[in-house]
Amino acid sequence: MKQREIYSCAQVMELIQEIGFLPLLDSGIHGYSAEEMVTDDCRYVMLPDGGWDWPLWKWKGPIITDGNCVYGKFFAGKAGFISKAWWPDFCNYRRHLHPAPSEGSIEETILLTLQEQGPLITRELRAACGFTGPKMRSRFDGYVTRLQMACRVVTEDFVYPTDKHGNEYGWGWSLLTTPEQLHGREACQCPRTPEASFDRLFAHFKALLPHASDKQILKLIKS
Questions:
Q1: Among 34, 95, 84, which residue's Cα sits nearest to residue 59?
Q2: Model-level pTM?
């Protein structure tokens, strides 16, 4: 993968379509993340007044709502983008590794809640699933992350609080949904076997990241 200098949201969108998979932050493979590819002006910076600016972080929402990629915690629990062209194979293999949640499980409750109530931010989803007690937040977040790793929950957009002047602030909240609700059931169907999807993914990553070890590539695909 040739190195390039990225300085706009549109360029990130183009790159996702070109290479198929793009971790947002450090992937464990040198140079392979949106954070490492953007120019210095687009990275996180502290402002003199104590605030911060991070163009790349603010681009996440527009990139997702553009509709040509899927976003979630897919890479070892870390977030990244996957083009719609590559999503069927990735989803096919990951769901093979992580079968559908068992009946009555917390994971099933989360999925049913999203299917019945539509997209929800994590706080709303947690309350709707009854995780309202003390120390429940981290436990619940763990379930949601596992469902994202299984390609059963994705982020539809980001929701930001606003101040009294109507200005958005803060890090934003993920608006969670299922990939079927976001892109349609057909987008999650693949004509290949999980094994064939794996072979296709592995060959793609080997060509994309010739400097990466097999172990590093397997981590991207499997965990």
A1: 34
A2: 0.93
φ/ψ of residue 163, rounded to 5? -85, -175
Please list the residues that pair with 83 across neighbouring strands: 69
H and E: helices and strands count for the chain:
10, 8
Residue 100 gets the label, from left (phi > 0), alpha (psi -120 to 50) or beta, of beta
- Mean residue pLDDT across the chain: 94
- The number of residues making up the chain comes to 223
Output the CA–CA distances (angstroms, integers) from residue 35 to 6, 7, 39, 65, 185, in the order listed: 10, 11, 9, 20, 31
Residue spans of alpha helices (H) in 44-193: 55-65, 87-97, 106-117, 122-128, 136-149, 179-183
**For residues 206 and 2, what is the distance between their CA atoms, to the nearest angstrom?**
14
CB 60 within 8 A of CB 50: no
Q: Which residues of 112-121 are buried (b: 16+ CB within 10 A; e: fewer)?
A: ebbeeeebbb
Q: Taking residues 145-156, what's their average pLDDT?
A: 98
State which H helix or E strand residue 202 sits in: helix 194-208
Q: Please check whether residue 74 is in contact with residue 149, taking contact to mean a CB–CB distance below 8 angstroms.
A: yes
pLDDT higher than threshold 80 for residue 122: yes
Determine what percent of the chain falls in helix, strand and coil, rounding each to the nearest 5. Answer: 50, 15, 35
Paired tokens of 223: 């965990």
